[in-house]
Write a structure and sequence with these properties.
By secondary structure, the protein is α/β, with parallel strands linked by helices. The chain contains 19 helices and eleven strands. Helices cover 49% and strands 9% of the residues. Strands 1, 2, 3, 4, 5, 6 and 8 form a seven-stranded mixed beta sheet that branches. The chain has a two-stranded antiparallel sheet with strand order 7-9. The chain has a two-stranded antiparallel sheet with strand order 10-11. Helix 2 packs antiparallel against helix 3 and helix 14 crosses helix 17. The termini are far apart.
């Protein structure tokens, strides 16, 4: 815009007003540089401050003795100005790449980065940009317009090739079936997924530092969730759990209910696979975060607290009315009951779960509790990102049993139940060894986030879960093939 105003608008000026304007413009730039942070929405309205400051400084073009002319006219500032675009181009790759190659990106390394940036900028300005501009000025065959057309064409071809290639890479990464096949080819079926922690897999070959392939690929693993999320089968916090969906899968005579919060959701792929094999009718009673035991838990507001507490009596009414043959439950106690801390509330939660299990058995169903799974979030942000960042040292995506195995009041209640219709099944021997729990097992990424089993790994666990259920349950009709 300033250029459009013409040269008279930004011609040198010696009046006091121009000097004041120049200082105000420079002040706006300095304030922007010192106070803007990465958390601020930039670019956006905030960009007006440094842009308007720059425009004011140029328009003022102050030559008054009280203006910042001596500050802006010294050799260092003019060096930066003359090479500013080259500095802009060079500083990004250095700032992006160096933190990944230097253990301590401290003040000394930052100063060194600044020095390297300016040095490279000056060198390329002198030996590349200026020389090339001069070449275009004197060349008879390669004028600037011709170079623009030719350069644009070459860049378009390169960009198109990269787009096509990256699109295929993305497609291949998101193909989970293909990634499972690649893992099976490299490890052999006896060491894929949960088989890695069994006697089938010799020499612990399924929990190594690295694998030729991962299933799912880390990019796909973050979206590898059970389909009940897409089917909107969870009572939602956003509605204070007022909407209580029941989703049915299959139409068999034997009726099975899956009950709990997101740590019951993670078992859906394994249970649905059994339902398909044996002709079950599978209903889900699933809720976000809330532990289904009827207690008032410490949510952020009263609406969620009440909605969670009311969910368990409603579930009991549904279970009683439907007459299920089997109830499968699992839960993570992420919030303590009101009046307790996370440390002191476990016993109160166990007592509440004991009462809940007793009420469920009175419906006539057998009840199986699946013990809670490890919690990688104790030491990791999430498992897929960890796998991507440590592809050659996957042990960094594991944790000790002490750190990862959470308290589990529902499992404690099932274990102490005197009712022989209440059974406890623990699947953690397919996730942990004696001392360590794993985020990547047998080439499979076992969790899609910081806490929940991936759809792929849970599905692979289905035969193991069925075997344990068969050994615990008394109803032989449940496992007759459809």
């Amino acid at each position: 815009m300033i250029a459009a105003f013409g040269s008279r608008a930004h011609a040198p000026k010696s009046d006091v007003l121009s000097a004041v304007a120049a200082w105000v413009g420079l002040g706006a730039i300095v304030i922007s540089a010192l106070t803007f942070t990465g958390e601020m929405p930039f670019p956006g309205a905030l960009a007006l401050l440094p842009v308007a400051g720059t425009a004011l400084l140029i328009l003022a073009h102050a030559k008054h003795s009280a203006s910042p002319k001596s500050l802006l006219g010294n050799k260092v500032v003019r060096l930066v100005g003359d090479n500013s675009y080259a500095i802009y181009l060079w500083h990004w790759p250095l700032l992006i790449l160096l933190p990944y190659t230097v253990n301590d990106f401290g003040i000394m390394v930052k100063l060194l980065t600044l020095t390297v940036t300016v040095t490279l900028a000056v060198w390329t300005q002198v030996f590349v940009e200026t020389k090339f501009r001069t070449f275009l000025d004197i060349s008879k065959s390669m004028s600037a317009p011709r170079f623009l057309v030719l350069g644009s064409a070459v860049l378009s071809i390169i960009a198109g090739g990269l787009y096509t290639t990256s699109g295929q890479v993305m497609k291949d990464s998101m193909d989970i079936s293909a990634s499972i096949q690649r893992v099976e080819e490299s490890l052999g079926r006896d060491c894929v997924g949960p088989n890695a922690l069994t006697e089938k897999c010799p020499n612990g070959g399924g929990v190594g530092e690295q694998f030729e392939s991962l299933a799912p690929a880390p990019m796909a693993a973050k979206y590898d969730r059970p389909k009940v999320y897409a089917d909107d089968c969870l009572a939602s916090e956003g509605e204070n759990f007022a909407d209580r969906p029941i989703c049915r899968y299959g139409e068999g005579d034997l009726k099975v209910a899956l009950v709990g919060n997101s740590h019951a959701v993670q078992w859906f792929p394994a249970v649905e696979s059994m339902a398909e094999r044996h002709g079950w009718s599978l209903d889900t009673y699933l809720i976000s975060r809330c532990a289904v035991n009827g207690t008032r838990q410490m949510f952020e507001n009263e609406g969620k607290t009440e909605g969670c507490a009311d969910y368990e009596p409603w579930v009991l009414d549904q279970l009683s009315a439907q007459g299920y043959d089997l109830i499968i439950a699992s839960s993570r106690q992420s919030l303590p009951p009101e009046g307790y801390s996370s440390e002191t509330g476990m016993d109160a939660s166990r007592r509440a779960f004991s009462a809940t299990l007793d009420s469920w058995t009175r419906t006539g169903a057998e009840v199986v509790v699946i013990a809670d799974t490890p919690f990688p979030g104790a030491t990791l942000d999430n498992v897929p990102d960890c796998a991507a960042d440590n592809i050659e040292q996957l042990s960094k995506c594991s944790g000790s049993i002490k750190d990862w195995l959470p308290s589990d009041p529902l499992a404690d209640a099932a274990k102490s139940s005197a009712d022989d219709r209440v059974k406890l099944v623990d699947m953690n021997d397919y996730l942990c060894s004696e001392e360590t729990c794993y985020g990547i097992i047998g080439g499979m990424i076992a969790f899609w986030d910081h806490s929940h089993l991936s759809n792929t790994y849970a599905h692979a666990l289905s035969p193991m879960l069925e075997q344990k259920l068969q050994s615990k349950l008394s109803n032989p009709d449940l496992f007759v093939s459809d």
